[in-house]
Amino acid sequence: MIYFLSDAHIGSRAMDNPQHQLRFVGLLNALAQDATAIYLLGDIFDFWSEYVWRDKSKEEYSPLLDCLKELTGRGIEIHYFIGNHDIWTYGELAQRTGVTVHRAPEVTVVAGKRCMLAHGDGLVPKEYIRQSPKEIQRKIRSFMRLRRLFHNPVAQALFRLVPPALGNRLGYNWAKNSRLKELANPCGYKGENREELVLYAKDQEQNRHLDYYIFGHRHIELDLELATGARVVILGDCFRQWTYAAMDEQGKLELQCIQEQNN
Ligand SMILES: [Mn+2]
């Protein structure tokens, strides 16, 4: 089996649950029993920045890092797509755990199916932005500006000059605030004509035909078949919903959910 998971937001200061990381590790270990590959589609960590690696606080991620290392050691391919919370990896994550890091959306063949895999942040058709009401345009554009800043190598180099303890605090607080905002005001599925990732997939389908578009980022579960036959799958999360997708060797994909226990 091949598994797709996203948005665990491990380390989130917005949730006071020391079991969260262990539960995610438990899920990975359970899936690993029959996994040939695992795709982690972004925001697995709530804040990951390797320049603060020397800071002791990174030790809190040891259970997950050790788990990833063990699984890759057993020969399970693990693909790590960065999200918008774990952009700042410069080689150490891959080195320490053996995962393959992907920094951009990718079109690849998985179990014979052509898939686009991405976290999903920043994927909005330009045409949709132009046609949207001013308020929505403003929201999208300010997200895009921040995204460009976070991905900018000069800004990244400057951020490395901030003392690690302070950089850490800034990062965790930014991540916490964005999570709290979303928890206070959750934005469910916006419908086929307003959900950006669906619009993006439709736009892509004009020039190529794929079997699956698999994304994270939105913290909603969606499995939608487009008119072209392509399926748009949004994974939910491993933060509150505990959902993920499983693909068998024939390329049949299904969203799954683990039982809500002691959450
Ligand atoms: Mn995200």
Structure description:
This protein is an alpha/beta fold and 263 residues long. The protein has a single domain (2-125, 187-257), classed as Purple Acid Phosphatase, chain A, domain 2 (4-Layer Sandwich), CATH 3.60.21.10. The chain contains 8 helices and 11 strands. The protein has helices spanning 19-32, 62-73, 92-97, 126-131, 134-151, 153-159, 164-184, 196-205; strands at residues 2-5, 37-41, 77-81, 100-102, 106-110, 113-118, 212-215, 221-225, 231-235, 243-247, 253-257. It has a 6-stranded mixed sheet, with helices on one face. The protein has a 5-stranded mixed sheet with strand order 5-6-7-9-8, with helices on one face. The mean pLDDT is 92. Bound molecules: manganese (II) ion (MN). Manganese (II) ion is lined by residues 42-43, 83-84, 119, 121, 217.
